[in-house]
Design goal:
- The structure is a single chain.
- The protein is an alpha+beta fold.
- The protein contains five helices and seven strands, in the order E-E-H-E-E-H-H-E-E-H-E-H.
- The strands form two sheets. Strands 3-4-2-5 form a four-stranded antiparallel sheet. A three-stranded antiparallel sheet has the order 6-1-7.
């Protein structure tokens, strides 16, 4: 799923159809409350491992990022919004158990604002996204959907935005061309 081999030249992501992106993260509000924020961080790591072991759940790729010494998040790319919703609500999944625990602690007054949690989900229709990478390993959207030479989707951003998977695309069977 994640490789580090550099692809020379300019490439773009080989995504077709709509793209589902989830940003999910945490903010450390009180550094001294380690007992509050470390479990949240570890739960995210455990969820990512759970998803890595079960690719059928629909996570295609992810990028771990930090916005500041306080804020950490993951950009996730999913097969579909249905698979994202299914994972989030699956009783056998760690996410469901963690949300249940958070809700119980909140109702019991045990959540004191030491750590913030957040997520944003986007379903981006085809024609509303484009990507370009120069001398990069497959990253972000390209790591999730495959990487193709830029010319296959158009030299300019306006051409890549106008690209439609049914128009001159060689389809998903060609996605492995530049995967690392």
């Amino acid at each position: 799923m994640f490789r580090n081999r550099i692809t020379r030249g300019r490439t773009t992501a080989d995504a077709t159809g709509e793209v589902v992106v989830l940003l999910i993260g945490m903010r450390v509000n009180r550094f001294w409350a380690v007992h509050q924020w470390v479990p949240v961080m570890l739960a995210m790591v455990r969820m990512l491992e759970e998803l890595r072991r079960a690719p059928e759940r629909g996570l295609l790729g992810r990028v771990l990022l930090t916005a500041s010494p306080r804020t950490y998040y993951v950009v996730q790319y999913w097969e579909s919004k249905e698979k994202l919703y299914a994972y989030a609500s699956a009783p056998d999944a760690l996410h469901h158990r963690m949300w249940s625990l958070i809700n119980r602690e909140e109702r019991a007054g045990k959540v004191r604002g030491h750590v913030g949690i957040w997520h944003e989900a986007y379903v981006v229709p085809e024609g509303a996204y484009e990507a370009v990478y120069g001398d990069m390993p497959a990253f972000g959207l390209a790591a999730a959907h495959g990487q193709v030479p830029l010319e296959r989707r158009g030299r300019y951003a306006k051409d890549r935005f106008a690209h439609r998977s049914g128009e001159g695309s060689q389809g998903s069977s060609d996605r492995s061309v530049l995967r690392g």
